[in-house]
Amino acid sequence: MEFTFDTEQIALRDAVRGLLRSRDDVPADQGFDPAMWTKLAAMGVLGLPFSEDVGGMGAGPIEVMIVAQELGRVLAPEPYVDSVVLAGGLIAAAGSDEQHATLLAALAEGESQPILAHAEPRTRWGTDAYGVVATSTTDGWTIDGTKEPVLYGDSATVLLVSALVGEQTKLFVVDPDEPGVTRTAYATHDGRRVARITFTKAAATPLGDAPADSSVLKDAFAQATIALCAEALGAMEVALDTTVGYLKTRKQFGVPLSKFQALTHRAADMYVSLELARSVVQYGAMCLAEGVEDPLVASRVKLQVSRSARHIGQEAIQLHGGIGMTDEYTIGHYTNRLTAMEHSLGDATFHRARLAQGLDQREIVDLLG
Amino acid sequence: MRLRLSAEDAAFQQDMRTFFTTQVPQETRDVIAHGKPLTRELIVETMQILNKAGLAVPHWPIEWGGRGWTTLQRHIWHEEMDLAGVPTPLAFNASMVGPVIAQFGSHEQKQRFLPATANLDIWWCQGFSEPDAGSDLASLRTTAVRDGNEWVVNGQKTWTTLGQWADWIFCLVRTDPDAPKKQQGISFLLFDLTSPGVTVRPIKLIDGGYEVNEVFFENVRVPADQLVGEENRGWDYAKFLLGNERVGVAPVGATKLRLRTARERALEPMADGSTLLADPLLAARFAELENELAALELTALRVAADSSDGRPDPASSILKLRGTQLQQDVTELLVDIAGHDSLATGAGEDSDVPSWAQRSVPTYLNYRKASIYGGSNEIQRTIIASSILGL
């Protein structure tokens, strides 16, 4: 048992941190910076989790966690978790050899950006499709229906679409530039881009040789959840650092705010929340790396991280006072993004329900086995 | 990064589990599992079983019974003990005075006290807090004045846990009232509670039981060779004692055992055939608590696994704070599961109300202490804010 990074992992962390330091303005209509995406590709970060024979780096969940955490620290808007971990993970898990060779290699190179189009309005975070249907025709598969909200759906170059085939949810690959695909893009509350995507007899090919079953979503969601939580961890680290820095420098009544115990004790509680989140994120990544077969791991991680994120996000603004409410200052953006992360891939209530459901059938968790 | 225990540590865990579940009598472990009060005899008997097997004071120096284990192994030892419902070695002996004597005591003091302390032949109690020196411990006023070959002690201690069962006391006393700072001028003194001039008065607590005491000293004469280390350095030894422990700070195993018990209670059929756990709101509360405990356990493991270089992980400071919160949360959960059965405090053996439910409120009330003793949770927050966040 060991909770420390090795020297290569520390080097990776430092390299990504260094790269993210230099950033140009993010084009508003794109929601992220394509130049940064290219730089991440050049560093090998986009191919990190994929095997070397498809152009990846053959690294594991620990390295993915390290990268995601660094992206979170600067609130990087690039779709690392959505495109590399989630969509890339699905292709790696369920794609055909040909899809591996074309889609993953292009993703690792930064030339392609696959995105999963799964969410539908008035649904929660399950693995089923509802109003999107796939039909087999003599010319192949077509898809009809609407997906929304699809994060990064407007800039995606490849869509993975969950659709009903009869009563079962299957996965398909759709080229968003083909006829029959309409994308309407708008901004999320945290300044990223999201799309409503309408499919009208849109041409689709199965993910895999036969369209993959929605069960592959489970593992992919678990991996993406833990990476997303690592991203949230990075954001929480900086939110607390920023708050602590503010308490030390801002003066009222002639003294720094750090003289007021009503504030420092709240900062201490934020630190507790941060460290609990760090513990579960590292646990989640290690479980993935070691193939621990507990389907509830991702829920454990997300429940704690969601609790910590809400606590730290809210307190960070309160301890700053009015300046925390302003768009020109950083801290409110951290709270905003943390709120978005909370509601991606299942919120606290969703994951708590999963954990609560089988409690009559299973013992209280034993982490050491 | 590696989650799994090494083969060596996994075997160690198995050895511990086997020992605790086979060598400590089931009747003893049932007392803890059923939340009944421990007796002095059970605590002594268990510590002697552990000491005989070399499991009472593994963190002491090897020549005095220590085992040279890693911090992680000590963590596993402690967790397995808690999970098996084994009464843990008396903290005043094993974690407090023992390590202080081993580190700062004279050779004569070590020989005289350490074997008897490890075997609980001497039951120690802690003479630190005073009526006007609680969280502000350094303002203590009990004095010791040198008279020939003896110290003469006058004053009062309070909140002396299990002092009514104790043989000896380790006591912070003011030996230099003129020292420039209140932390200076304090010494660490050991003496027999049967000495003339000592009065122990138990304090009845809100759970109806007696656990803490007031201890009064009136011209108690203590031989000079029972002062530990150097005169007026007692504050340093007290800080060593309080900061010494990195294992068992958060009682994860004990809380987990209680949560397991709570789950079993919530699964027992009610008169109408239903179970409480079928209520999604209660199940959600379980899931929340289970997860909070898992996050704490992982943090405790992080601290234990990564302190091999001797430097404490800063995260260790959250263990006491969070550990006591969850310890209290689960006692609260048990009261709520008991429902109106929790009112049947004095029902006794003849009642259909199960004994755990009868004891649920006293236990809940008793554990309000956890966020107060050993540095209240407000003190812990101050420590986190100042020493970790630099505020």
Question: Care to describe what's here?
Answer:
The complex is a heterodimer of chains A (369) and B (391). Chain A has 3 domains: 7-112, Butyryl-Coa Dehydrogenase, subunit A, domain 1, CATH 1.10.540; 116-213, Beta Barrel (Butyryl-CoA Dehydrogenase, subunit A, domain 2), CATH 2.40.110; 215-357, Butyryl-CoA Dehydrogenase, subunit A, domain 3. Helices cover 48% and strands 17% of the residues of chain A. With 369 residues, chain A is an alpha+beta fold. In chain A, strands 1, 2, 3, 4, 5, 6, 7 and 8 form an 8-stranded mixed beta sheet that branches. Chain A has a two-stranded antiparallel sheet with strand order 9-10. Chain A has helices at residues 7-21, 34-43, 61-73, 80-94, 97-109, 215-249, 261-289, 297-320, 331-342, 348-357, and strands spanning 114-117, 133-137, 140-151, 158-165, 168-174, 181-187, 193-206, 212-213, 251-252, 255-256. Chain B folds into 3 domains: 7-89, no CATH class; 124-232, Butyryl-CoA Dehydrogenase, subunit A, domain 2; 249-388, Up-down Bundle (Butyryl-CoA Dehydrogenase, subunit A, domain 3). Chain B is built from 13 helices and 8 strands. Chain B is an alpha+beta fold and 391 residues long. In chain B, α1 (7-23) runs parallel beside α4, α4 runs antiparallel to α9 (280-306) and α8 (252-267) packs antiparallel against α9. The relative contact order of chain B is 0.10. In chain B, strands 1-4-5-8 form a 4-stranded mixed beta sheet. Chain B has a 4-stranded antiparallel beta sheet with strand order 2-3-7-6, with no helix packed on it.
